[in-house]
Amino acid sequence: MTSEIQPVRKVLPLIPLRNVVLFPSVETSLFFGRKESTQALLHAFDNTNKLVIITAQRHSNVEKPEAKDLYTVGVVAKIEHVLQSDGSLHAIVRGLSRVNIVNLVQHEPFLTAEFVDLPVISESVTDIQQAAEALLSQLKKAFALGRQFDLPAMMQLSTGVSSSDLADQVCFAVDAKVPEKQSLLETLLVSQRLKGATELLLQEMKVAELERSIEEKTQEKFNVHMKKNVLEERKRQIDKELKKLGQREEGENDDLEKRIKKAKMPPTIKKKLLKELNRLNEMGSMSPESSYIRTYLETILDLPWGKYSSTKVSLPKSEKILDDDHYGLKDVKERILEYLAVLQLKNKSKPNPDSISSANILCFIGPPGVGKTSIGKSIANALNRKFIRASLGGIRDEAEIRGHRRTYVGAMPGRIVKGLKDAGSLDPVFMLDEVDKIGADYRGDPSAALLETLDPEQNKDFTDHYLDFPLDLSKVFFILTGNDISTIPYALRDRLEIINFAGYTLEEKFHIAKKYLIKKQLLANGLSPKNTTEIKDKTLKYVIDKYTREAGVRELERVIARLFRKVAKKIVTTKVKQINLNDPVIIKKFLGPEKFSSQLKGKKDEIGVSTGLAWTSVGGDILFIEVNIMPGKGNLILTGKLGSVMKESCRAALSYVRSQAKNFGITQNFHKVDVHI
Predict the structure, then answer these.
(1) Under a CB-based contact definition with an 8 Å cutoff, are residues 105 and 113 in contact?
(2) Ligand-binding site membership of 373 (annotated)
(3) DSSP character at residue 157
(4) For residue 350, is pLDDT > 70?
């Protein structure tokens, strides 16, 4: 036979509160003026435990409450500090736990109550967590609307405050009626208390939003004419005082206003700038924001509004420029001339430069040193436009393309806007170099920012974050370059017309060196044709074949430069006036031993050896494939850093031999031997 354990009854002084409901875990400051309350407070404070029961009155107008006038659920509180002033007491109390008031023991000289502790009811942790998250979410919204709470629990969230304490502190802090708060004080389930606190907070936010809406509407009805007069008079007085102090001179921003009105920018942008200028005029020159606004205005005014290059295109002249600047590249030149022909026809049908735009974005893909960047300069010369180049290799921040928002310290426009500013026109040839080497991280993906920039349908309204208004890029001739098309994102690649640059052949390198590089390096190294014998074709081809192995001509140019530096040193140190560079001995002395050698086909066929063809970035080569067989278990061993295609070819060859073994007169014991290729 079992019996329920009866809760222990305790006795403490009781203090009733009017219009206040105290909760556990809340520390607050209270004023006590009634005689009974002050006596109970001092009695408890003089006691060792400093404990007192605090409960709310049902009706605030009752001066001497009886049991029927008090709520039966209250809080045991500890008195932390007491200060006496003008007949009343100011005390700091801290709520400890919920209690149920059983009855009042005495009424004089102060109330004393018999009480029992209310039990803690266990419940689902999941329910508590969900309710707590909902309350925290509502609190964040309240903070965003400007609501301030003095909540220790909110300050201690990172240290793991309990959900029960959070609910109690929010219930105490919100603006609600006593019965609503008392109902939550009497709620023992933490999840229900959290939900109730969320409802009270939501209700308070709705009231605050309504009050703010009413206030805004009332403010709008204020006499606009009177407000304008007051502000203008205040501005005149401020300007007058600043002039006396020497902090502002008359018309210091007049130059900006003249430039804004004179600029050939769209009316909407001009209106925005004049609004910013008015803000600048209304603040003192010592204001930190004034320098930001001035920089913003000057940056926009420095853009080449309404300035375009001459769009007259002469196809024969353009072809001559391309041929003079670059040898070979017939397919590339042909595609560029096609573009220029289309542009010339557009000029005839639509002479207004505002109607001329770049229909396609060209992307040059090829190995380093084949002339991708330099041919972009030639295109600019052929079009009679300014040439701007921006290297995108290694950038990881989207702001490099779109710019930083003005709210950031040190904000600046992106590379596109900077390029237009440097070009001095709104239709330059704009080369974005190394587009295949763009990175991405937590700051954004620059290649995604390029999508709008390079889309002919969208770049009429390109928006730089710093400018914060649309900028027309449709007249800009964009050219992209890269080495590896596979690393360019598909969405970006889809907007581009790919033009592939193949590596130069030996013959093309020979003509490039003879026509351009030798003359350039003679001049760069202080030499003249009199200092060296004319380099024969055979010597030049020997240098190209034995000392360079590349797709472009950069290494070849470095080799020629090295050769001429040796000549310069020889002339200075030995007083010799001319060096014969057609002597192989001198070439090897100046450049060292041969770095590369070409494989030659075997003079006679050998068993177990065949000749293969290999592709390289500089053309083709041959290689010898040797095969050995040895006792084993039928394994195929492949060595020599073979690629997947070569491995498949080896397996296919072995399969063919096995299938035709009878025709070839080969003993079919493949499972007893290993083949090593």
Answers:
(1) yes
(2) yes
(3) G
(4) no
Predicted confidence (pLDDT) at residue 652 exceeds the cutoff of 90: yes
Lowest mean pLDDT across 100-114, 226-240, 434-448: 226-240
Task: For domain 315-500, give the CATH superfamily.
Answer: P-loop containing nucleotide triphosphate hydrolases (3.40.50.300)
**Contact, 559 vs 591, CB < 8 A?**
yes
370 labelled ligand-binding: yes
Each residue's pLDDT tens digit, 43-89: 888 888 889 999 999 988 888 888 888 998 999 999 988 888 777 78
Give residue 620's pLDDT band: very low, low, confident or very high (50, 70, 90). low
pLDDT, the chain, mean: 82
Q: Is 371 annotated as a binding residue?
A: yes
In the chain, where the domains are located: 10-117, 125-220, 224-301, 315-500, 506-591, 627-676
Assess if CATH 2.30.130.40 describes domain 10-117: yes
Q: How far apart are CA 28 and CA 91, in angstroms?
A: 8
pTM of the model: 0.55
What H or E segment, with its residue span, contains residue 154?
A: helix 152-155
Which CATH code fits 506-591?
1.10.8.60
Q: What dotted CATH number matches 125-220?
A: 1.20.58
368 in a labelled binding site: yes
Q: Is 367 annotated as a binding residue?
A: yes
- The answer on whether 198 is annotated among ligand-binding residues is no
User: Residue ranges of the alpha helices (H) in 267-371?
Assistant: 267-282, 288-301, 315-325, 330-349
